[in-house]
TrEMBL record:
Species annotation: Sulfurimonas marina
Keywords: ATP-binding, DNA replication, DNA-binding, Helicase, Hydrolase, Isomerase, Nucleotide-binding, Primosome
Enzyme class of the recorded protein, top EC level: isomerase
Catalytic activity line of the entry: ATP + H2O = ADP + phosphate + H(+)
Family membership noted in the UniProt record: Belongs to the helicase family. DnaB subfamily.
InterPro entries: DNA_heli_DnaB-like_N_sf (IPR036185), DNA_helicase_DnaB (IPR007692), DNA_helicase_DnaB-like_C (IPR007694), DNA_helicase_DnaB-like_N (IPR007693), DNA_helicase_N/primase_C (IPR016136), P-loop_NTPase (IPR027417)
Entry's Gene Ontology BP terms: DNA replication, synthesis of primer
Pfam family, one: DnaB_C
Full protein name: Replicative DNA helicase
GO MF annotations, alphabetized: 5'-3' DNA helicase activity; ATP binding; DNA binding; hydrolase activity
KW Isomerase (keyword) present: yes
Length: 484
């Protein structure tokens, strides 16, 4: 391999510096990876140092030699060369140089991969582009991993995770904050790599529901990517401003506001100008295009913590497959993309109208359009349900029928500004199913927690052994995180 793709002297100097000053390995372990070293013997020594560090053992010549012998990788000549190298003071400059050469090696490997998938496997160009973009994203994000993780690596990572959770003060919130205390208690938040489906019939408020979560995140200075396939970006922003200011959406649409409300709006605009919200409203996107756009955006803005697709059934398929096969490719692609980027991806979904013929119109998993693959790939499936939508609809149908028969009609349904809403957890891979109660403010198209959360919250669990799971149905604070 060409000399400009590695520098053995720099590698020896870095390892020598670690041996003579082990305290700096804590910082270097974050910057360096095993395959950043070109020489296999250097990789083995770095692995041995990592193992000693993880087990809180001294990082010195004798312990490194002992660990290498256990690995059956001991090379006395290489270790002597490292010990003979001069320790360096500006370690970071050497690390940057080694990583730069490592990046070039990975890029060279990628060119070989491109030739293989293009010429030898004769893959379609769209698939080749997707493979290349994924590999390039992994390389630039320093995300190369081995095919298998061994037990010591997994146990160490798991213990670090548990310690991090403990440092949070035993908080039930592990993933991305949903914006609703009730839902956080039930789900511990949307986890990294999760595919979350939010499904509902039209007019139930699924877009409004997820916009509440989006608003909550950007107010915490966290980034959100939003693919709006149905609604222009301006309409999304109007809803966000209504949530932010508590000014009715209709007033914002026509500009009919008091001086005080105009002042509130100006303040909200200033806040939104600094928000890390990125909206793609092109209205037509397939899974390959979405992957490409989101990878690029995530690379440019690492602060993005969630992506939203509104909504799944509008996404275009690839090729001439049947629609259910296209949806299967889309849902699987979204799940793999969520894992790749390490963020939850929330996809909104329509429900079949067949549920409206039932007496109890609360949704079930089988009501999701093209439900098979979506149900299988999703980590969490939430249904948005408001009984008042059907009560109002039935009232109008009775009124219409009475007028057609020439009869007098007496209204029985009183339309409310605030309606009770349910978020039904139809599936949760790492937690219980059930539902929580929210309040929907119609004029603001906003969902909020029920008033007096601590007293009013009532969780309903389904298909879960509350005794063995240490869940006290009467007290939300006693819910424990699901076992890893």
């Amino acid at each position: 391999m060409q000399d400009n793709l590695y520098n053995l002297a720099f590698e020896r100097s870095i390892l020598s510096s670690i041996v003579f000053e082990p305290s700096q390995f804590d910082d270097l372990s974050v910057m360096l990876k095993v395959d950043d070293f070109y020489l296999p013997a250097h990789q083995d020594i770095f692995k041995a140092i990592m193992t000693l560090f993880q087990n809180d053992l001294p990082i010195d010549e004798e312990f490194i030699k002992k660990e290498l012998n256990k690995m059956k990788k001991f090379d006395e000549q290489v270790l002597l060369e490292i010990l003979a190298a001069n320790p360096i003071s500006n370690t970071k400059a050497y690390v940057d140089e080694v990583k730069d050469k490592s990046l070039k090696r990975h890029l060279l490997t990628l060119t070989t991969e491109i030739k293989r998938v293009t010429v030898e496997e004769e893959l379609p160009s769209a698939d080749v582009v997707d493979i290349v973009e994924k590999k390039l994203y992994e390389i630039t994000q320093d995300n190369q991993t081995s095919d298998f993780l061994d037990s010591p690596t997994m146990t160490f990572a798991t213990m670090e995770y548990i310690k991090e959770m403990k440092a949070r003060g035993n908080s039930v919130l592990v993933g991305v904050d949903t914006g609703f205390k009730d839902l956080n208690k039930m789900t511990t938040g949307f986890g990294k790599g999760d595919l979350v489906i939010v499904a509902a019939r039209p007019a139930m408020g699924k877009t409004s529901f997820i916009l509440n979560t989006v608003h909550n995140l950007i107010m915490q200075d966290k980034g959100v990517a939003f693919f709006s396939l149905e609604m222009p970006a301006e309409q999304l922003m109007l809803r966000m401003l209504s949530i932010q200011t508590s000014i009715p959406l209709q007033k914002l649409r026509v500009g009919d506001m008091s001086d005080e409300q105009w002042s509130q709006l100006n303040g909200a605009i200033d806040q939104m100008n600094n928000a890390k919200l990125f909206v793609d409203d092109t209205g037509s996107v397939n899974i390959n295009q979405l992957r490409s756009k989101l990878r690029k955006l995530k690379a440019q803005h690492p602060e993005i913590e969630m992506a939203v697709i509104d909504y799944l059934q509008i996404m275009q398929g690839i090729g001439n497959q049947d629609r259910h096969l296209q949806v299967s490719d889309i849902s699987r692609g979204l799940k793999m993309l969520a894992r790749e980027l390490g963020i939850p991806i929330v996809a909104l979904s329509q429900l079949n109208r067949g549920l409206e013929s039932r007496n109890d119109k609360r949704p079930m998993l089988s009501d999701i359009r093209e439900s098979g693959s979506i149900e299988q790939d999703a980590d969490i499936i939430l249904f948005v349900y408001r009984d008042d939508v059907y009560l109002y609809k039935e009232e109008k149908e009775r009124e219409k029928a009475a007028k057609a028969e020439g009869k007098e009609f007496t209204p029985t349904y009183v339309e409310k500004e605030e309606e009770e809403a349910e978020i039904i957890i139809g599936k949760q891979r790492n937690g219980p199913t059930g539902h929580v109660k929210l309040v929907f403010q119609k004029k603001l198209t906003r969902f909020i927690d029920q008033p007096s959360f601590a007293q009013a919250t009532e969780f309903v669990y389904e298909n879960v052994d509350t005794k063995s799971a240490n869940i006290d149905v009467g007290g939300a604070d006693k819910i424990e995180m699901p076992t890893l």
